[in-house]
């Protein structure tokens, strides 16, 4: 039973094998004239997907990604690529008519292998993520294959900042005071954010479908000599930011120390503007 719509395609196949076997040496032929074995294999495909394995494919936005058919195309074969749950036609290769149809959704961004019918996205987008169903009609025989495509954005580098609201010390000793840190990323999905001490995982947080901002805290001592890093990763890539304790984790300054720092910075700014004038200082960077 065959249908043009792969969503309605179903196949019912039954094969019987009859084998006659008799053992004249060990069995009484009058009692066991023959033994008949019935081999029944029943294969049911429902909606064109039951029994069809799904191949997972990952890619980064802008990269080339190929969906391989694993098939060598014959002259009169009909190859059709469908996209999404609605099975929208993306590409149709009609060997008998020597004609190839490419939908507007992927026009100019895909290439079709003339030997195999494999589909290559030359510049894949995150919106290309989803299910792709392949139907190959060859010599009165229909084959199916399915791909689950996931396309990821390029990952940002995590940002590590000191959480000054948590600035505290133990017994008034700056040598053992704690440094509270936050590692953050903005507008990410399908990622995991983690803190590592050397190669050992300390903590992590994950997000799946939602595009949100993530933050993960860490508390270390000012004099800690271990190496720490914050890692953002998905299935195919990662970004790492290493923690510089000596730079971010200076002992908490008191009120008088903070006033002195601010006063010094104001004097520096005043000196710069007196020296070069406001208009000529547009590109001057104060560090």
Automatic annotation (TrEMBL):
<protein>
    <recommendedName>
        <fullName>Ig-like domain-containing protein</fullName>
    </recommendedName>
</protein>
<dbReference type="InterPro" id="IPR013106">
    <property type="entry name" value="Ig_V-set"/>
</dbReference>
<dbReference type="InterPro" id="IPR003599">
    <property type="entry name" value="Ig_sub"/>
</dbReference>
<dbReference type="InterPro" id="IPR007110">
    <property type="entry name" value="Ig-like_dom"/>
</dbReference>
<dbReference type="InterPro" id="IPR036179">
    <property type="entry name" value="Ig-like_dom_sf"/>
</dbReference>
<dbReference type="Pfam" id="PF07686">
    <property type="entry name" value="V-set"/>
</dbReference>
<feature type="domain" description="Ig-like">
    <location>
        <begin position="158"/>
        <end position="246"/>
    </location>
</feature>
<dbReference type="InterPro" id="IPR013783">
    <property type="entry name" value="Ig-like_fold"/>
</dbReference>
